[in-house]
Amino acid sequence: MLAAKETGVLAQNALCCTTPMPVQEGLAIEQRLLEQVTSGRNRWGYAIWRCHQALVVPRSATHKPGFELASRYCESQGWPVVVRSTGGEMTPQTHGFINLSMVVRSNGVKTGIRDSYLLICQPLIQWLEAMGIHAYCSHVDGAFCDGDFNLVVNGKKIAGTAQRRKRLKVPSSTGQDEDTAILLHAVILCDEGLERIWKISNEFYKACQLPPFIIGDRHICMSEVTQQHGESFISGAMRDLDKVIKQHISLF
Question: Domains in the chain, start-ordered, CATH in brackets?
Answer without folding.
Answer: 17-249 (3.30.930.10)
